[in-house]
Amino acid sequence: QVQLVESGGGLVQAGGSLRLSCSVSGRIFSINDMAWYRQAPGKQRELVATITSGGSTNYADSVKGRFTASRDNPKNMLYLQMKSLKPEDTGVYFCKADTGWGGHEYVSWGQGTQVTVSS
Protein backbone atom coordinates (compact mmCIF):
# COMPACT_ATOMS: atom_id res chain seq x y z
CA GLN A 1 0.00 0.00 0.00
CA VAL A 2 0.98 3.61 -0.56
CA GLN A 3 0.24 6.45 1.83
CA LEU A 4 0.14 10.14 0.94
CA VAL A 5 -0.05 12.78 3.64
CA GLU A 6 -0.57 16.46 2.87
CA SER A 7 0.33 19.30 5.20
CA GLY A 8 0.75 23.05 5.16
CA GLY A 9 -2.81 24.20 4.68
CA GLY A 10 -4.38 26.95 6.72
CA LEU A 11 -6.08 30.32 6.77
CA VAL A 12 -4.43 33.16 4.89
CA GLN A 13 -5.47 36.60 3.71
CA ALA A 14 -5.84 37.37 0.02
CA GLY A 15 -2.46 38.15 -1.47
CA GLY A 16 -0.68 35.87 0.96
CA SER A 17 1.31 32.70 0.43
CA LEU A 18 1.25 29.10 1.56
CA ARG A 19 3.41 26.08 0.85
CA LEU A 20 1.80 22.68 0.78
CA SER A 21 3.75 19.47 1.22
CA CYS A 22 2.88 15.88 0.43
CA SER A 23 4.89 12.92 1.68
CA VAL A 24 4.69 9.56 -0.07
CA SER A 25 5.50 6.33 1.73
CA GLY A 26 4.83 2.61 1.58
CA ARG A 27 5.48 -0.01 -1.07
CA ILE A 28 7.14 2.13 -3.70
CA PHE A 29 9.60 1.13 -6.38
CA SER A 30 9.07 4.25 -8.44
CA ILE A 31 7.04 7.43 -8.28
CA ASN A 32 6.00 8.61 -11.68
CA ASP A 33 3.66 11.53 -12.31
CA MET A 34 2.39 13.46 -9.32
CA ALA A 35 -0.31 16.06 -9.12
CA TRP A 36 -2.20 18.53 -6.97
CA TYR A 37 -5.98 18.78 -7.12
CA ARG A 38 -8.40 20.94 -5.20
CA GLN A 39 -12.07 20.84 -4.39
CA ALA A 40 -14.07 23.87 -3.39
CA PRO A 41 -17.34 23.51 -1.47
CA GLY A 42 -20.12 22.37 -3.77
CA LYS A 43 -17.77 21.95 -6.73
CA GLN A 44 -16.04 19.08 -8.44
CA ARG A 45 -12.43 18.26 -7.78
CA GLU A 46 -10.21 20.06 -10.28
CA LEU A 47 -6.64 19.62 -11.41
CA VAL A 48 -4.27 22.32 -10.22
CA ALA A 49 -0.82 21.15 -11.29
CA THR A 50 1.03 18.11 -12.54
CA ILE A 51 4.70 17.26 -12.34
CA THR A 52 6.52 14.39 -14.00
CA SER A 53 9.33 12.39 -12.46
CA GLY A 54 11.72 14.55 -14.46
CA GLY A 55 10.25 17.77 -13.09
CA SER A 56 8.18 18.95 -16.04
CA THR A 57 5.12 20.84 -14.87
CA ASN A 58 1.73 21.89 -16.13
CA TYR A 59 -0.76 24.18 -14.45
CA ALA A 60 -4.40 25.08 -14.60
CA ASP A 61 -4.87 28.46 -16.25
CA SER A 62 -6.34 29.83 -13.03
CA VAL A 63 -3.07 29.33 -11.12
CA LYS A 64 -0.42 29.91 -13.77
CA GLY A 65 2.16 32.41 -12.63
CA ARG A 66 1.07 32.12 -9.00
CA PHE A 67 1.57 28.45 -8.08
CA THR A 68 4.71 26.37 -8.45
CA ALA A 69 4.82 22.60 -8.10
CA SER A 70 8.08 20.88 -7.24
CA ARG A 71 9.25 17.54 -5.93
CA ASP A 72 12.16 16.03 -4.06
CA ASN A 73 12.55 12.56 -5.50
CA PRO A 74 15.06 11.16 -2.97
CA LYS A 75 12.75 12.23 -0.15
CA ASN A 76 9.50 11.17 -1.91
CA MET A 77 8.07 14.62 -1.38
CA LEU A 78 5.79 16.83 -3.45
CA TYR A 79 5.33 20.55 -2.87
CA LEU A 80 3.03 23.32 -4.01
CA GLN A 81 4.17 26.91 -3.45
CA MET A 82 1.16 29.20 -3.68
CA LYS A 83 1.55 32.97 -3.95
CA SER A 84 -0.84 35.88 -4.51
CA LEU A 85 -3.65 33.75 -3.14
CA LYS A 86 -7.22 34.66 -3.96
CA PRO A 87 -10.48 33.78 -2.17
CA GLU A 88 -11.35 31.53 -5.12
CA ASP A 89 -8.31 29.40 -4.28
CA THR A 90 -10.14 28.23 -1.17
CA GLY A 91 -10.71 24.51 -1.00
CA VAL A 92 -9.34 21.17 0.07
CA TYR A 93 -6.08 20.41 -1.69
CA PHE A 94 -5.21 16.80 -2.49
CA CYS A 95 -2.03 15.25 -3.78
CA LYS A 96 -2.01 12.29 -6.13
CA ALA A 97 0.83 9.97 -7.03
CA ASP A 98 1.26 7.31 -9.69
CA THR A 99 3.58 4.69 -8.26
CA GLY A 100 5.06 1.41 -9.36
CA TRP A 101 5.64 -1.76 -7.33
CA GLY A 102 6.05 -5.40 -8.30
CA GLY A 103 5.36 -4.74 -11.95
CA HIS A 104 2.09 -2.98 -11.23
CA GLU A 105 1.11 0.67 -11.25
CA TYR A 106 -1.01 2.27 -8.57
CA VAL A 107 -2.79 5.60 -8.20
CA SER A 108 -2.97 6.91 -4.66
CA TRP A 109 -4.51 9.99 -3.05
CA GLY A 110 -3.91 11.86 0.15
CA GLN A 111 -6.64 12.82 2.59
CA GLY A 112 -6.42 16.51 1.73
CA THR A 113 -5.48 19.72 3.50
CA GLN A 114 -7.77 22.72 3.85
CA VAL A 115 -6.75 26.07 2.37
CA THR A 116 -8.91 29.06 3.19
CA VAL A 117 -8.22 32.48 1.68
CA SER A 118 -10.06 35.38 3.25
CA SER A 119 -10.85 38.56 1.36
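Second entry:
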Amino acid sequence: VQLVESGGGLVQVGGSLRLTCAASGNILGIYEMSWYRQAPGKQRELVATISDGELPKYADSVKGRFTISRANTKSTVNLAMDSLKPQDTAVYYCYAADRVSDMRIDNYWGQGTQVTVSS
Protein backbone atom coordinates (compact mmCIF):
# COMPACT_ATOMS: atom_id res chain seq x y z
CA VAL A 1 0.00 0.00 0.00
CA GLN A 2 1.25 3.45 -0.90
CA LEU A 3 -0.17 6.69 0.45
CA VAL A 4 0.37 10.05 -1.25
CA GLU A 5 -0.85 13.29 0.32
CA SER A 6 -1.58 16.52 -1.51
CA GLY A 7 -3.26 19.84 -0.89
CA GLY A 8 -1.04 21.43 1.72
CA GLY A 9 0.17 24.99 1.46
CA LEU A 10 0.17 28.45 2.95
CA VAL A 11 -3.09 30.02 4.08
CA GLN A 12 -4.08 32.98 6.21
CA VAL A 13 -5.79 32.71 9.57
CA GLY A 14 -9.44 31.86 9.10
CA GLY A 15 -8.85 30.35 5.70
CA SER A 16 -9.50 26.85 4.41
CA LEU A 17 -7.51 24.00 2.91
CA ARG A 18 -8.44 20.56 1.71
CA LEU A 19 -5.98 17.70 2.03
CA THR A 20 -6.26 14.54 -0.01
CA CYS A 21 -4.60 11.18 0.54
CA ALA A 22 -4.62 8.72 -2.32
CA ALA A 23 -4.07 5.07 -1.50
CA SER A 24 -2.82 2.61 -4.08
CA GLY A 25 -1.74 -0.99 -4.18
CA ASN A 26 -3.64 -3.74 -2.36
CA ILE A 27 -6.12 -1.55 -0.49
CA LEU A 28 -8.95 -4.05 -0.02
CA GLY A 29 -7.98 -4.70 3.60
CA ILE A 30 -7.78 -1.07 4.67
CA TYR A 31 -10.37 -0.55 7.40
CA GLU A 32 -9.17 2.69 8.96
CA MET A 33 -7.63 5.86 7.61
CA SER A 34 -6.51 8.83 9.62
CA TRP A 35 -4.79 12.17 9.49
CA TYR A 36 -2.03 12.97 11.94
CA ARG A 37 0.05 16.12 12.26
CA GLN A 38 3.38 17.05 13.72
CA ALA A 39 4.42 20.58 14.53
CA PRO A 40 8.09 21.53 15.03
CA GLY A 41 9.34 20.32 18.39
CA LYS A 42 6.14 18.44 19.15
CA GLN A 43 5.01 14.84 19.00
CA ARG A 44 2.87 13.57 16.19
CA GLU A 45 -0.80 13.76 17.14
CA LEU A 46 -3.99 12.29 15.81
CA VAL A 47 -6.21 14.83 14.05
CA ALA A 48 -9.07 12.75 12.68
CA THR A 49 -9.85 9.14 11.89
CA ILE A 50 -12.48 7.29 9.91
CA SER A 51 -13.07 3.57 10.32
CA ASP A 52 -15.37 1.09 8.65
CA GLY A 53 -18.77 1.11 10.31
CA GLU A 54 -17.94 3.90 12.76
CA LEU A 55 -18.51 7.60 12.96
CA PRO A 56 -15.49 9.81 12.32
CA LYS A 57 -13.50 10.89 15.36
CA TYR A 58 -11.68 14.17 15.86
CA ALA A 59 -9.16 15.70 18.20
CA ASP A 60 -10.82 18.24 20.46
CA SER A 61 -8.68 20.99 18.98
CA VAL A 62 -10.20 20.55 15.50
CA LYS A 63 -13.79 19.57 16.26
CA GLY A 64 -16.24 21.72 14.36
CA ARG A 65 -13.53 23.00 12.01
CA PHE A 66 -12.17 19.90 10.28
CA THR A 67 -14.09 17.21 8.42
CA ILE A 68 -12.68 13.84 7.40
CA SER A 69 -14.28 11.89 4.59
CA ARG A 70 -13.50 8.79 2.60
CA ALA A 71 -14.46 7.85 -0.93
CA ASN A 72 -16.76 4.86 -1.39
CA THR A 73 -13.94 3.14 -3.21
CA LYS A 74 -11.87 3.54 -0.03
CA SER A 75 -8.97 4.72 -2.18
CA THR A 76 -9.05 8.34 -1.02
CA VAL A 77 -9.42 10.10 2.29
CA ASN A 78 -9.90 13.84 2.52
CA LEU A 79 -9.50 16.36 5.30
CA ALA A 80 -11.39 19.60 4.86
CA MET A 81 -9.95 22.23 7.16
CA ASP A 82 -11.84 25.45 7.85
CA SER A 83 -11.29 28.37 10.19
CA LEU A 84 -7.60 27.59 10.29
CA LYS A 85 -5.51 28.87 13.16
CA PRO A 86 -1.74 29.41 13.48
CA GLN A 87 -1.61 26.42 15.84
CA ASP A 88 -2.79 24.21 12.98
CA THR A 89 0.58 24.74 11.32
CA ALA A 90 2.26 21.35 10.99
CA VAL A 91 3.21 18.59 8.64
CA TYR A 92 0.09 16.51 8.05
CA TYR A 93 0.45 12.76 7.54
CA CYS A 94 -1.98 10.25 6.14
CA TYR A 95 -2.20 6.88 7.89
CA ALA A 96 -3.87 3.63 6.90
CA ALA A 97 -4.45 0.41 8.84
CA ASP A 98 -4.59 -2.70 6.69
CA ARG A 99 -6.08 -5.87 8.14
CA VAL A 100 -3.94 -8.44 6.40
CA SER A 101 -5.36 -11.32 8.43
CA ASP A 102 -7.13 -11.96 11.74
CA MET A 103 -3.73 -11.88 13.44
CA ARG A 104 -1.97 -9.15 11.51
CA ILE A 105 -2.52 -5.46 10.88
CA ASP A 106 -0.04 -3.50 8.75
CA ASN A 107 0.37 0.23 9.21
CA TYR A 108 1.19 2.65 6.41
CA TRP A 109 2.17 6.31 6.37
CA GLY A 110 2.35 8.93 3.69
CA GLN A 111 5.29 11.25 3.23
CA GLY A 112 3.51 14.25 4.73
CA THR A 113 2.34 17.59 3.43
CA GLN A 114 3.11 20.97 4.99
CA VAL A 115 0.29 23.21 6.18
CA THR A 116 1.26 26.71 7.25
CA VAL A 117 -1.26 29.17 8.68
CA SER A 118 -0.02 32.73 8.77
CA SER A 119 -1.35 35.41 11.10
